[in-house]
Write a structure and sequence with these properties.
The complex is a heterodimer of chains A (315) and B (97).
Chain A lengths: L2 H17 L12 H20 L1 H5 L8 H26 L5 H9 L17 H18 L8 H29 L3 H20 L11 H6 L7 H19 L9 E3 L4 E3 L5 H11 L3 H14 L1 H16 L3
Antiparallel strand pairs in A: 1-2
Chain B lengths: L9 E7 L6 E8 L3 H12 L7 E6 L16 H4 L19
Antiparallel strand pairs in B: 1-2, 1-3
Classes of the chains: A mainly alpha (315), B alpha+beta (97).
Chain lengths: 315, 97
Amino acid sequence: MTATADEAELVADFEAILGRHDRIEPRDWMPERYRRTLVRQIAQHAHSEIIGMQPEGAWITRAPSLRRKAILLAKVQDEAGHGLYLYSACETLGVSRQELTELLLSGRQKYSSIFNYPTLSYADVGTIGWLVDGAAICNQVPLCRTSYGPYGRAMIRICKEESFHQRQGYELLMTMQRGTDEQRAMVQESVDRFWWPSLMMFGPPDSQSPNTAQSMAWGIKRDTNDELRQKFVDMTVPQAEALGVTLPDPELAWNAERGHYDFGEPDWDELTAVISGDGPCNAQRMAHRRRAHEDGAWVREAATAFAARTSEDGR
Amino acid sequence: MSEIRAEWPLYEVFVRGKRGLNHVHVGSLHAPDDAMALRHARDVYTRRNEGVSLWVVRSDAITASSPDEKDPLFAPSGDKVYRHPTFYEIPENVPHM
């Protein structure tokens, strides 16, 4: 058989697995573009979890009570854990942790635009849990059924934990809403800042998302950016009403004909700017990450040296 | 930026969810040695009472069946339908079988 005939057979097997809605596993043959797309998407997702520790981590030492501090610590630890699940899934595609770390630290791979916005008050901890983690859940629940086995399994673990993240955020905001006028103003101000960036988390509109069709054909993505954005808006509006906050969009209105909420157009130029490095905190986030990596070098080296010595001593 | 040193070996992690169940593979992690692998496994994979027992094993110590998931290794079991109880027809009036 010729090389092309072999390849055609491999492609046919691969397509057949997808056709059955079965999962692709690490040692299956897969088209190089499928592999590359997955590496990029999973890595970007992992980097987002790692960078995502920063905006809220900054508030751990200033939590208003021991209860809130314990919750926030657990949440930030979860983000680290999510990053590690995802790096582990990504490595099954033949890319090393070292490469992935370098791609993040050198800025050649991106992370979610949302983490380039600052957290200016403790209300932001609540808003991030409610809106940012809420948007993440919208994105991630369908990914539990993604076609690549290790990615789907990592997403299932993550989604179980994200539910805690969202609920602790909403509960924090409800508590503030029951407080003083000043606290209610803090909540509203925080929601005003995070609403549009949360909508942008779903990525550019479908008309400007050239990779979506291929990713959906491969079963990597299950819904388009605009479909997920709509779902998020529909879920969130009643939650905002229950909370007693206003979402900062004058065009937001129920459309009975469509059975969905209509909403305004996010500022896509802002998204483009934040993605290309011009967001409010891009430089700060990357500098912090690089510093943390360097400051931890002695720990990694000491552990390696200890392991080498104990294995020489025959333990 | 300091140079990133050679990677710690990869370990596969298995968790026994509760007594009476098998250990199940949950993912992998890097660690400098076995003891650290166990500690990391606890922190990464069992933050919410997911398990009562953990195994970690160096990934390079695992021998796997095949380069892909449809190996001729499993072909011999495919044509032995008589190994399944449903292969045998038993009259309806025979109880407890």
